[in-house]
Amino acid sequence: MKNFKQILRYLKPYTVFVVFSVIFVIFEVASNVLQPKYMEQIVDDGVLQMDLDVVFKAGVMMLLVAVIGGVCGYISCVLSNIYSQRFGNSLRKTLFRKIMSLSAQQDDAYTAGSLITRMTNDTRVVTEFSSVFIQMAVKPLMLFLLGIIMVLTIDPIYGIILLVSLPVQFLIIRFFIKRSAPVFATIQKKLDRLNSFAMHIVSNNRLIKSYVRENYEAGRFDNQNRDLTSTVMNIQVFMAILNPLVMLILNTVVLAVIFIGGFQVEARMIRVGSVMAAINYSQQIMMSMMTLGGIFQYVARSKVSAERLTAVLNREPALPSGKQMIDRIDKLSLSHVSFRYPQNQDAQRNVLEDISLEVRGGECIGILGTTGSGKSTIARLLIREYDATDGQVTYNGVDVKDIDTKSLRDQVSVVFQNSDMFSASLRENITKGAVFSQEDFDTAVRSACVDEFADDLRGGYDAVISERGASLSGGQKQRVAIARALLRAPQVLVFDDCTSSLDLETEAKVLERIQTNYRDKTRIFISQRISTIMGADRIILMDDGRVVAFGSHRELFDSCELYRSIYQTQNPEGGDELE
Ligand SMILES: Nc1ncnc2c1ncn2[C@@H]1O[C@H](COP(=O)(O)OP(=O)(O)OP(=O)(O)O)[C@@H](O)[C@H]1O
Fold first, then answer.
1. ABC transmembrane type-1 domain location, by residue (predicted)?
2. Residue 407 belongs to a domain with what CATH number?
């Protein structure tokens, strides 16, 4: 219930709409309750007394009240739709911002499919609940209570019939709700799983096709889809029994009222119109109870959704941003940094072990190491995607945890090996978020050699890049990502294996241009290829999460056996000598 209350707080700004929606529904209920009374009058004082004047006047009044009730019902519905849509809008917006604010570490805890299901399906469920609440809870509750009062005013004997039938109806509805509530939670989970799976398949469509796994994946999808469908169907089949059961009780009640009413009419204890009114009110009462039962289904479903929404909304940022702003970086350092990924806390070894490193502003550093040695992890710690498990990452001597995250990422850019593209034009893909002049733009695209292929695209820089950069080659995507980072002109540029898909000639050109055009920036090149990093002022050689050696290309070649052997492997011709 706590989760429910928290979600309903987003409804607060629309209280006026809620209040007016309730007021109009009160008028609608009043109209519904008055109508059997007019009917009673028409039958008893009009038809039975052969007084057409009464029939006409009461008929007109009945019609008028029905029209007013209908209009009020309509306005109430419109108002509840307005507030529920606005409520849904604000909930989705807040959730989206929250998801955006989660760190990489927290992202790992939820699949993309699960987050999307929460943002779409779960918000829809609670939004719908807020909209139907008045129609399915407030209105039937009032009809129920007023109906009972009206029946009792006609003749308390009918109260006895309700006294027997209502608890039976209540117990049946409760039984159905109790059985169905856990199934709704299961359905939500299965939907989550199916969404995640579908997203995974759609985004890896090419890979699946290239390995001719379409049928296999379609089979897996079918299994999950069938599982979801059968769960939904089973519960619907089960719930379908509820309606006829309630109708059975309802008709029994009507029969009982007719039966007792018949005797009373014969004994001249009551008039026919009153019996008809009692039948009407009994139907109203029973139907209201049924509708109230329906709202409990909504409550059960919304409770599950509210829990799933608050689970994300209440996630405090695992890495709360610091406050200190930075606009210059004169020194960055890692001091005795060890790290293991949060989801691998029980792993035997750290991914990084006791790394210490100091880089001055404007320096060029190369990080060389075998695959899985922890090079990219260093890059991730530099932009604070994760916090070091032990030790400290500092900029200008300030702990990265104390620095404003946005300001940090404005000053430190990492280009990863597989950079994602936006579904936008080539120009937008490069300029995203940057403040730049035409000269900056030209320098960035020339340095990254984007200009070499941009003109060949249909539309040039205005050519639209398809989703995830599917219309570009791997090397082209890497060049766009490099240009994007260069244009933002941060103080520290980290190139994490992002020239791996370029041919050697283009790579050499890109490296040389970056070294020339961005020499005032701190540059960190990460690679497994010596050719990429050997122009750096200093090179760190990593193996198995540790720094094995540190020095210039010349120093490492002369003093480090491992470095020399990597060099010789990558330069089989003339590898014994340093070029
Ligand atoms: N998000 C993650 N969660 C858990 N473990 C991870 C994660 N990312 C990387 N690892 C593990 O951390 C270790 C170091 O990975 P990292 O990507 O830093 O290596 P790398 O030196 O950059 O490798 P490569 O040159 O192949 O890119 C690897 O054993 C990898 O399996």
1. 19-301
2. 3.40.50.300
Identify the CATH number of the domain in which residue 303 sits. 1.20.1560.10
pTM of the model: 0.70
Rounded to whole angstroms, the Cα distance separating 388 from 339 reads 5
Q: Is 345 in the pocket of ligand 1 (CB under 6 A)?
A: no
Residues 116 and 258 in one domain: yes
Nearest ligand 1 atom to the CA of 374 is 18
Give the tens place of pLDDT for each residue, 269-328.
888 889 999 999 999 998 898 888 888 778 877 888 898 899 989 888 778 888 999 888
From 348, 378, 360, select the one nearest 546 (Cα to Cα): 378
Decide: 538 in ligand 1 pocket, CB within 6 A. no
ipTM value, please give it.
0.96
The total number of structural domains in the chain stands at 2
Last residue of one domain, picked from the residues 262, 284, 313: 313
- Distance, CA of 506 to CA of 499 (rounded, Å): 9
pLDDT in tens, 381-396: 999 999 999 999 999 9
- Residues ≥6 apart with Cβ < 8 Å to 83: 11, 14, 17, 18, 21, 130, 131
Q: Which helix (H) or strand (E) holds 551?
A: strand 546-551
In angstroms, what is the span from residue 545 Cα to ligand 1's centroid? 10
Give nearest CA residue, ligand 1 atom 12.
351
Domain extent for 559: 331-419+490-570
372 Cα–ligand 1 center, Å? 5
